[in-house]
Amino acid sequence: MVKEIERAGIPVVHICTVTPISLTVGANRIVPAIAIPHPLGNPALTAEEEKNIRRKILETALQALSTEVTDQTVFEVKY
Amino acid sequence: MKLELGYIHIHDIQLAAASKVENGVLYVDAEAVKKLVLEDEQIASVEVEVAHPGESVRITPVKDVIEPRVKVEGPGGMFPGVISKVDTVGSGKTHVLKGAAVVTTGKIVGFQEGIIDMSGVGAQYTPFSKTNNLVLVVQPVEGLKQHDHEHAVRMAGLKTAVYLGELARSLTPDETETFETLPLKESMDKYPELPRVGYVQMLQSQGLLHDTYVYGVDAKRIIPTVIYPTEVMDGAIISGNCVSACDKNPTYVHQNNPIVHDLFAQHGKTINFAAMVITNENVYLADKERSSNWSSKLCEFLGLDAVIISEEGFGNPDTDLIMNCRKITEKGIKTVIVTDEYAGRDGSSQSLADAHSSADALVTGGNANQVITLPKMDKVIGTEDYVGIIAGGWDQNKHEDGTIDVEIQAITGATSEVGFNYLSAR
Amino acid sequence: MLERMVVFTNNPMVRDALSQRDGCKVHYAPVSYRQILCLARDAVHQGHKLLTHPLSGSVKPGETPYKSVAVSQEKGLLDLPSLSLIENSIVTCDKFPIRSKSKDPSLQEDFQLVDLSLIMSIF
Amino acid sequence: MSKLRVVHYINQFFAQIGGEEMADYKPEYREGIVGPGLALQTAFGEEAEIVGTVICGDSYFNENLEKATAEVLEMIKAAKPDLFIAGPAFNAGRYGVACGTITDAVKKELGIPALTGMYVENPGADMFKSSVYIISTKNSAAGMRDAAPKMAKLGLKLAKGEKVGASCEDGYIPNGIRVNLFEKERGSKRAVKMLLAKINGKPFTTEYPMPDFDRVPPCPAVKDIAHAKIALVTSGGIVPKGNPDHIESSNATHYGKYDIEGVDDLTSDTYATAHGGYDPVYANEDADRVLPVDVMREFEKEGKIGSLYRYFYTTVGNGTAVKSAKAFAAEFSKELVADGVQAVILTST
């Protein structure tokens, strides 16, 4: 799916729990997520903390979209 | 290690008053065979039948197929660790009743399977429509447990094959063939220019009806090891695997392992067929890691340049196959893998349960889900009661005119994963 | 050496055989073959490791109704090999149609026994 | 039996009308054989007859895809063929796409047996190999002599409703449907031969190619993210509560597109997951954990992004066959481009 979007000429960032899978499916900009049942959240935290984490992941995603890459690149989130 | 196989060509089997081989005919004293089989107190009765190529006969449910052989020179005897003592076999001379086979049939569990049609469309799909088959229909004593039942039928087949093989002991073979594998150092010295090729055979080893025995040892208890390819010709590996008829290796296929034979055909010419490694396909995932680590380590240790890896089964073994392929490739060794496919009846599903880019050279035994219609046969040896239940049979698959629709996975040897058959897919 | 495990099973024979076994917790649920795989998958998503192959046995999904899968009791980071194995297994399971013979009462004991034998093969 | 009626499709070049300068040539129907149809007719012998030929310029077809397809289909329909053959297109890209498009349309819309031919690396091959039979040809017109008998043979099989063999038997580009065949050599011998080829660095063809792991080069970065229109796409199966479009939990046959205008936060009352591939408890409690609309809205307000695209797209990810997932994405990507979306955030579980 990620490849088809990129093929259409739109840069795409893939936020994905299992980065090796993301690498296999051919994503070029990858941001690791938290866990499979809740990639952009963590039910163990308070609502406020959880949203904060989500912001950090998405800020990293925006940064990935703004970064030129030549190859598959994983952008680690700084918590 | 050097073994000479002496083939006595058999073109017919007949039941007779005394067992003997004469002019290519195997005469079998059915009473003697029954007496032998009934020595096992767990067996209540046995029928002895004969099926010839081209006859309107169906054998089902098939448990195992075994080739009658006898050791005439060299240490040990047939089926070491099971019938004979555990002496190391694989050298000297062995006589083979080529063209004859012992087929065992019997219901062990309610979904027991395996079809051999001696004529018609089904015959094209099984290699055992071309052999003259002595069939044992084995009935257990009342209340016999499945494990004991499986063991009893297995032993009945092996004992009968040994009994028939004995008839060849003093005969002069019609044809002989010699196979030799040298110890590591000598082999390297003799063929310094040839690529060193190995064979990694994966053995089914998951539990009841899914077992293989090496010199009598349950294959799930082995660590991958080296075996001379000629040892398997003397029955070092036997089958206790009765599920998935199309891609299991009957004992006959172990004895005649086609990859071993076709590698030997190139030995000393284009390759140095240097070694054979056997490994297993256990259920426990750590066992898979360990076994694939060992198989790849052995291939490296043996200095192999290339190997053929064969699988047995589907699903669980796909994981072992890909692990073996990946780890052996990572050692810088070139690989070809042999498997079969479950791509669905329409052929559109993903064929294997696992995949890796290192598996770039694959030979397939075909799509086991292909449906064919088997004609009605004049005679059924065993029973068709289970045809609707076996893997590859299904509900309402028997038509009014007696024809049966089955997936070819119900047919013994149809999609052989050691390449014993001609079927393939694209 | 075997890890301490949780066995997800819909097979009463496995439940009875393993319930007293050391290092072994049984999670018995009278659900479908596929749903047993899903229970194992959810455990893998939580960080448990798969210990046995989900597609053990040559009796195909849809042919036998019984399935037993072991995962580690210990929970850690998401185990990628376990993840890819369980996900692939569910995809593979879905391509096999359910055969009505799998529900035949006369066959249940045999199906249970083979499934039991597969899981017991690890001990 | 009367001869089977065949209609043939070729481009302006093979109709000898002209090269690139005539690529705008509009569809035209001519009675009988034109150009390469002769080789096909020879291959058909007495069994079939090319009754007419549709000619269309490659540029015209590709630039007016829908209109041209309709026009060409009309001409084909009127000729009442038993079989339709397009090309072969060899390595000509736009010709290949035209051949694939029209063959696919004839098969699906007219229900008439149809096939085409092209070189395996023609872009049309990848696009259409799983929907229509494409005879594998050489990469230039010099391959016509080779291709014509194969196209005729498979064409006759299709027209007569006979069973099609495996790709290597009938010469078509593998289409993902596995077909059994009996080989002349047993599997073990084929394995030894393949191994020898591999050892000696010679070419060999695997009998089952592993799923391909092809790559797409990265798109350039977004220059001004603070003014960019960004879309959210998820393979996590987030849908409005109640799953109004009945997206299946796995092996989904369609994808969802939902309007989020005015939605600032996904709540347990409004959104849930339709995905069957993970424990749904956490996503159902708060779907922002999978599809982060809440934070994206905040970013919009804070000026971190230009705007959030009005719709989000959703699929159920790994349960869905790779093939259909690709098709879904190709389809909605067109809409994203058309609506001026400049970047996509794709979330997966």
Strand and helix layout:
The complex is a heterotetramer of chains A (79), B (426), C (123) and D (349).
Chain A: H1 2-7, E1 12-16, H2 19-24, E2 29-32, H3 47-65, E3 73-74
Parallel strand pairs in A: 1-2, 2-3
Chain B: E1 2-9, E2 12-15, E3 20-22, E4 25-28, H1 30-38, E5 43-51, E6 57-60, E7 62-66, E8 69-73, E9 92-98, E10 100-105, E11 116-117, H2 121-125, E12 132-140, H3 146-166, E13 175-180, H4 184-190, E14 196-204, E15 210-214, E16 217-218, E17 225-227, H5 229-233, E18 237-241, H6 251-255, H7 258-266, E19 272-281, H8 285-301, E20 306-310, H9 316-330, E21 334-341, E22 362-367, E23 371-374, E24 379-382, E25 404-407, E26 423-425
Chain D: E1 4-11, E2 28-31, H1 37-44, E3 48-56, H2 58-63, H3 65-78, E4 83-86, H4 93-110, E5 114-119, H5 123-128, E6 133-137, H6 144-160, H7 167-170, E7 180-182, H8 187-199, E8 229-234, E9 238-240, E10 256-259, E11 271-273, H9 281-285, H10 293-302, E12 307-314, H11 322-338, E13 343-348
Parallel strand pairs in D: 1-3, 1-4, 4-5, 5-6, 8-12, 8-13
Antiparallel strand pairs in D: 2-3, 9-11, 10-12
Helix pairs in contact in D: 1-6, 3-4
Question: Can you offer a commentary on this structure?
Answer:
- Chain A is built from three helices and three strands, in the order αβαβαβ.
- Chain A is of the alpha/beta class and 79 residues long.
- Chain A has one domain (2-74).
- The longest helix of chain A has 19 residues, at 47-65.
- Chain A is globular, with a radius of gyration of 13 Å.
- With 426 residues, chain B is α/β, with parallel strands linked by helices.
- Chain B has helices at 30-38, 121-125, 146-166, 184-190, 229-233, 251-255, 258-266, 285-301, 316-330, and strands at 2-9, 12-15, 20-22, 25-28, 43-51, 57-60, 62-66, 69-73, 92-98, 100-105, 116-117, 132-140, 175-180, 196-204, 210-214, 217-218, 225-227, 237-241, 272-281, 306-310, 334-341, 362-367, 371-374, 379-382, 404-407, 423-425.
- Chain C is an alpha+beta fold.
- Chain C has helices at residues 12-18, 33-45, 80-94, 108-120, and strands at 5-9, 24-28, 48-50, 68-75.
- In chain C, α2 runs antiparallel to α3 (80-94).
- Classes of the chains: A alpha/beta (79), B alpha/beta (426), C alpha+beta (123), D alpha/beta (349).
- The interface between A and D is large, with 49 and 55 residues.
- β1 (12-16) of chain A pairs parallel with β13 of chain D, so a sheet runs across the interface.
